[in-house]
Amino acid sequence: MGDLWLLLLLPLSLAAFHGVKACLECDPKFKEDIRSLITKLVPSEVPGRTHLLEWQIKEMIHLSFKVSHGDKMLRVLAVHKAVKLRIWLKNELYKLGNETWKGAFIFQGKLLDVRQNLESKLKEILKNFSEVVVTEGPILDCWTCLRITTQCFRGEYCGEEDSRTAENREIGLFLILLTEVVILGSAWLLFHICVSHWRKMKAIRRSLKKYLEKKLEELIGMTDKEKDDSGIRK
């Protein structure tokens, strides 16, 4: 049941917060650095360079998200370990940058090796950390990028061994996020209705104004004609 609520919770949290983070992405410069480093690896004259870069950058950045969100027990990591992983990845990309360009196919194969090594390292570190009971230093919640100061930790906070308590907490969070999504959706719908109504009223006023102007011109024309006829009869 807890896993079911977790699956339901994930898309709603994405909608509410416009994207959930991952262990490596908690560094504000991570995406920017990875994009810059990978971009420098591909010569400007390579055909389809833009598409190639966008796909490779997306795969590299999304890897951390896929691993840390695959299991709720793997959502936390010591801050210094996350820093070491980012440094390792940047060094690997620096090494590729010092190699001679041998074509897009070879390039993709080398980046695939880097991603596989990163995934293996990340899974191992997260799994090992989930089995730690007492830690030193700050802990990073990869889903929210918040730091946990407690030293008693084992996948989840110590003292929360009752699965019912954990499940109730997940249900409460799900209901909160669901409420936020409903409120945001209602606000957007109301805004859309108001804008549509305002546009319709504006169009109606414009049409009415044109109609009245036309009728006024007709009345003025008829009045002028009657005056002319009266002048002729006199």
TrEMBL record:
Organism: Panthera leo
InterPro entries: IZUMO
Superkingdom classification of source: Eukaryota
Official protein name in the record: IZUMO family member 3
TM segment ranges: 171-195
The UniProt record lists the keyword Transmembrane: yes
UniProt entry keywords in alphabetical sequence: Membrane, Signal, Transmembrane, Transmembrane helix
Annotated family: Belongs to the Izumo family.
Pfam families: IZUMO
Signal peptide annotation: 1-22
